[in-house]
Design goal:
The chain is of the alpha/beta class. The chain is 35% helix and 15% strand. The termini are far apart. The structure holds pyridoxal-5'-phosphate.
Amino acid sequence: MPDEPQKTLSPHLTTGLIHHPYLAPGGFEAPQPGVFKASTVYFPSVAAMRQREWKDKSSYTYGLHGTPTTYVLEERLCALEGGLQCVLVPSGLAALALVALSVLTTGDEVLIPDNAYGPNKALAQGELHHFGISHRFYDPLDPEDLSRQISPKTRLVWLEAPGSVSMEFPDLPEMVRRCRERGVWCALDNTWGAGLAFKAFDLLGDGHGAGGEGSLSVDISAHALTKYPSGGGDVLMGSVITRDAALHLKIKLCHMRLGLGVAANDAETVLRSLPSIDLRYKAHDQTARALAAWWQDQPQCAQLMHPAFEGSPGHAHWQALCDRNTGQGLAAGLFSVMIDARFSQAQVDAFCDGLKLFKIGYSWGGPVSLVVPYDIASMRSAWPSHLRPGTLVRFSTGLESARDLILDLHQAVQAHLPIA
Ligand SMILES: *Cc1c(COP(=O)(O)O)cnc(C)c1O
């Protein structure tokens, strides 16, 4: 039986709950920005709906196009990285894909460093290929090789500093200069640097500032916010940051057409973590250096791959870009160890399994230390000449005490990687 229409002026309870007239007073201020959730956004009239502009963030049209929460996060990420425009996407990998789909078209070619984040290579091989977009891999340590491979078809060059498994640090300013000379877009996967270790939009750091005359800058910075900006190992998100309004618009339109929105609660999580990113990054860094220094003294370690350590591939480039001879340079919480070739894969696997504090798992930047053995031979075009033979194990340091982590490494090495 349908409800009796109410005889009073107040509407039906449900209608009243939905169309409640109360508006909370403005001016609320607290440490965390508000969390606004929406697919639908209201317009006061049809005329207003037709006129409303969202691309410049002056207002709102639809949840996918932005809310106060995503706008605030975008602006704070621009501040972190020194960019002017930002779009948010549901993962770091989606950021890499969005860059590719925004600037590449049939007949174009993309160049990717041979040590790049694996799924970026897979994106080119498995997806871009279907759009008639070709790819080539270049030697991340050889700017000459990059120049040689840039052809009239090349539209986009990916850069990564360092490669996040074998940790080679490229001569980033020189690579960017080569792209500039040849008029191709250069996009940096900035997940490792996170806007902290160096400034992607001001690579010379010579006081001219991002966008200043004579400054050297990448075109696009893609960032897996999943790592340090989140810091919790509990949220996936990515960003694409630029300093060129026309390039941003190209990316923003592609972003809209692909429907790549982020959830408000995820944006809230990143906003909550962002104020502590600098402190966390430095803590991860210090722990990683303590562990790397320990490894250097172990006979099981054939090679240490940590950009801040002498002898690591591209160490001088890290020094020039991140350290500038101050001794204060930052280097994240990631390093790899080439376990000597005398140990079998099974022994290395048993060592990883034998760790108690380090968990086995992908990703990094969260509170828990992680370990993953990688099969470099299957990941590279050829075994890189700068890598010693052996089995590569990558460590990502969490926020545990360095002493406890070293004790854990020690017990697992003793148990599973015996020196005869
Ligand atoms: C993790 C990572 C990504 C991808 O981020 P997801 O959010 O996991 O998709 C991209 N690049 C680098 C260097 C990464 O470490």
